[in-house]
Amino acid sequence: MFKNIQKYLLINQPLLWNLKIVPITFLLILFHILFFIIGYLNGELNFLETERNYGSDNEAITIFFGILSSIIILILWIVYYFKNNAFKSLYPKNNFSLFKEWLLILAISLLLSTFSVSFFLGKNIKIRSYFTENELKKRCETISEASIFYEGSFQEAKEIEVKINDTLKNVPLDYFLFKGKKYNLNSLINKNVESFSIFNSTDDSIRKLKVKTWLVNNQKNNVKSLFSDFLKIAKEHQLNANINENKWLSLVYNYPDFMTKYQIETSEKDNYSNYAVDTAATTMVMPPAEKFDTLNRYIKYVGKERFIFNKYFVPAAALSYNYNLISESYSKPLVDYDLLLVLFYVSLGFSLVLFSFKVTSGKSWLIALVSIGIFNIVLGIISAISSSEFVYLIGIESMITILFIYFLYIISRKKGKSISAILLNILIWSYGAFFPIIYFFIMTICKKWGHYYDYNGGTTYLENDYYKFYQLLEDNVEYMLYANLTIMFLMMLFFSFKIKKWKGVAES
């Protein structure tokens, strides 16, 4: 089949025939489907796992093999693609032929570099397939509200100013107020709720207020119903708790102050970590500062290994971990746009490298590669000596401008290419950096004039117009990169016309 198609393309569409567009596209789509399937299978969740014991190198391994596959396919394709060169053979071409050829190279480069995108797309689709977004929100609400009643963090104590020895100091309160009544800082009413990325901070506050209102109004049945719903979710995933809703309620529901000596843990056992090694006696000793909680925990051997078992637990750790994964898959797009942008620029750069090789020669391409390397080393040394961040930026901008003017001059003069083939390679590789460098150059100036400083990760600045403009530019870097893509496409259209004219100039 491919042989017949290639024969047809050779007669009717020689560009597509030379690019081997049908077999390479078929092969790349096949690999994308394969990586999508691998991602889909990798997206299967094991609800017995928690963040503590969960670990998988599947992603790293898949991405590695994706890169390896891309390299192997690329080498095979280039061998066939570079066998013929209609441009060098002066085969008749219209004004748009070079631009179309570059677009096709770019499309192939994109398919080659985005295996990981298909992998993550398949993985996210699988994770989302467990529940609809509305169902997920209901379940996450239940888990979040129930989190007040098992092990978790408390809200920080508020501070007040107190005059001590004629000095005002901030002193933390040993209580907090809720609906006009004082509560102990360790009261359940002062507990935080589990947060999921599918909710915002306002949603968390509403759920927290809802449950705490149940407590102060002594709405015991609502709390019991919440425990029942939580345990139903756990049972659905074959997760076990050693207490039911009645036992849970009796342990933690202590109206009206909601202080409890019982601790509901989030898993059955923990690693034995409360002991230290006495190297002199080679025995395990208890650190004197720690006191073992025998009311809620006990130590037990499993084989030769010791574990701390919790007397009362619900499988909250496993639920929180897995539902957080599902929540994150919904709160983020199916495909990471930032990753797509990076891969698009990688593909774009690679397509320009291939295109420049195709329209010039291997010799000029290699000389250009060495030349640009030496130029950057020299420019980097000068920048380091001058201790100015502007030198390198100005040097690159000047180089691109001079190369562009020289290229147009060679075409207009029509008296010989001279070294323009070498410089054309460098121009094609670097022109896409022209406008981003201007953008970052302006950012650097505004940062400097705006007195913006960075000290070991901390920043100080003056609130002035320069700083505000710097912030505006910093917040819109991504949009600049998208705009730069449009500029690069327009410039490649321009270059494709000019390169066709440049080809007609005598060699020397």
Keyword list:
single chain, 508 residues, mainly alpha, three-stranded antiparallel sheet, two-stranded antiparallel ribbon, 18 helices, 11 strands
Question: What would you say this structure looks like, in words?
Answer:
This protein has helices at residues 2-12, 14-18, 21-42, 58-81, 97-113, 115-128, 133-146, 201-216, 220-236, 245-252, 316-331, 337-359, 362-386, 389-413, 420-430, 434-449, 465-475, 477-503, and strands spanning 159-164, 167-172, 175-178, 181-184, 269-271, 276-278, 283-285, 297-302, 305-310, 453-455, 458-460. The relative contact order is 0.09. The protein is mainly α and 508 residues long. The strands form five sheets. It has a three-stranded antiparallel beta sheet with strand order 5-9-8, with no helix packed on it. The protein has a two-stranded antiparallel sheet with strand order 1-2. β10 and β11 form a beta hairpin. The longest helix has 27 residues, at 477-503. α6 packs across α11, α13 (362-386) runs antiparallel to α14 and α14 (389-413) runs antiparallel to α16 (434-449). The protein is 59% helix and 9% strand. Residues 274-289 have low confidence and may be disordered.
